[in-house]
Design brief:
- This protein has one domain (about 5-255): Creatininase (Rossmann fold, 3-Layer(aba) Sandwich).
- Helix content is about 40%, strand content about 10%.
- The chain has eight helices and four strands; from the N terminus they run H-E-H-E-H-E-H-E-H-H-H-H.
- It is globular.
- It starts with 17 loop residues before the first helix and ends with a helix.
């Protein structure tokens, strides 16, 4: 592998190197994020920063073992729940469907690998990825798995207020990955209402789906669903290690399911 391709980023290769660097059994890793409010202390591109950086960490840790290659990030997702906030950019369901189908078709056309790990940094993308995964497999022959970072970063507790959005866990990860983007002076304001039952009922209930919004005072304050006041880089690094470790069994299963 040349020095230029040592990063295992597909975009760092030349067109002439694709056929020798990538194989049918290679696994392509696609970071997916969003452009949406993340409270008064985190930037709009938080989910994309996290998805891209954690994809890079996964590729760094497991790249040789599983022949991983990182694709350019999808930086906008489905974020209508945050559309009240300036700067939030959300694709429509039809637009996201068309974009991901186009991307899947192009991957199948232009790259030798048919294995795709989508590293999803935004919870609002989950539903469409679950539905489109079957289409990407059935229509384009891609062996697909979506890894949802939010569920690994912030497991839902049995009691207390779940860390759903811009709370301690997500803020800690940003302090570890991109501390210059965190407005530390605003951390004291980054706390949502202590109403765990409302979040469980309107956002996390597996038996009912609601068109909830992050400007609902029962769920959040200033867009925060959680409490970022005790966030730390140390906590963020421990979460990052947990995410990278969690990727190994997912990659093993994806390899097992491979058609290549």
């Amino acid at each position: 592998m040349s020095a230029a391709s040592a990063s295992r980023r597909v975009g760092d290769l030349t067109f002439a190197e694709i056929g020798t660097a990538l194989r049918a059994s290679s696994i392509l890793c696609l970071p997916m994020g969003s452009m949406e409010q993340h409270g008064p202390h985190l930037p709009l591109n938080t989910d994309t920063v996290i998805a891209e950086a954690l994809t890079a960490r996964i590729v760094q840790r497991w790249g040789e073992a599983f022949d991983l290659w990182q694709l350019p990030a999808v930086a906008a997702g489905l974020s209508r729940e945050h559309e009240w906030a300036p700067g939030t950019l959300s694709l429509s369901i039809a637009g996201m469907t068309a974009h991901l189908r186009d991307l899947g078709r192009e991957i199948a056309r232009s790259l030798p690998s048919r294995n795709l790990l989508i590293v999803n940094g935004h919870g609002g993308n989950r539903g469409i990825l679950e539905a489109l995964g079957r289409e990407l497999r059935g229509d384009f022959g891609l062996n697909v798995c979506a890894m949802h970072l939010g569920a690994i970063i912030s497991p839902v507790p049995d009691a207390g207020v779940p860390e759903i959005h811009a709370g301690r866990d997500e803020t800690s990860v940003m302090l570890a990955l991109a501390p210059d983007l965190v407005r530390r002076e605003r951390l004291s304001d980054a706390v949502g209402p202590a109403k765990g039952d409302a979040i469980r009922g309107l956002v996390l209930d597996p038996a009912a789906s609601w068109p909830w919004s992050s400007d609902d005072a029962r769920l959040s304050a200033q867009g925060v669903m959680g409490d970022a006041r005790n966030a730390s880089a140390e906590h963020g690094h421990s979460i990052i290690e947990r995410v990278v470790a969690a990727a190994e069994p997912i990659l093993k299963e994806l390899r097992t399911a491979s058609r290549g």
